[in-house]
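I am sending you the entry underneath: sequence plus fold tokens. Let me know what the token row says about the fold:
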Amino acid sequence: MQLRMNFAGRKLAYLSGHDVSARRIGRFATGALSIGGATLTGVLIWQASAARGNPNPLEPNSDQTAAVLDIGVLVFREGLECILVLAAVTAGMVGSSAVYRRPVAAGVGVAVFATLVTWQIVIQ
């Protein structure tokens, strides 16, 4: 496997004979994020127009699609918030604070397990 150095001094590998440059990866990431952002914006606009505002899933005779979309967006937002909080908490764990990474990871594991147990209780 041949290697070359990029501008930051990091090694970039040739994968199966194809040059994977940092610029190409950056373009792909920018494109993927742009498409994802546009899709999310479109879904939010569609949701708002279909339900004439923020849908209330408990309202009688409400559109089931709008209610499912509302709940899906809520779960996505909460998951994103959780990732951001964990990233902020663990970002400062370097040096002598690195010993706290394992307890934080254990707490995340317990939280995921509790979420799955709660979900099982609710759907039964």
Q: What stands out?
A: The first helix runs from residue 22 to 50.
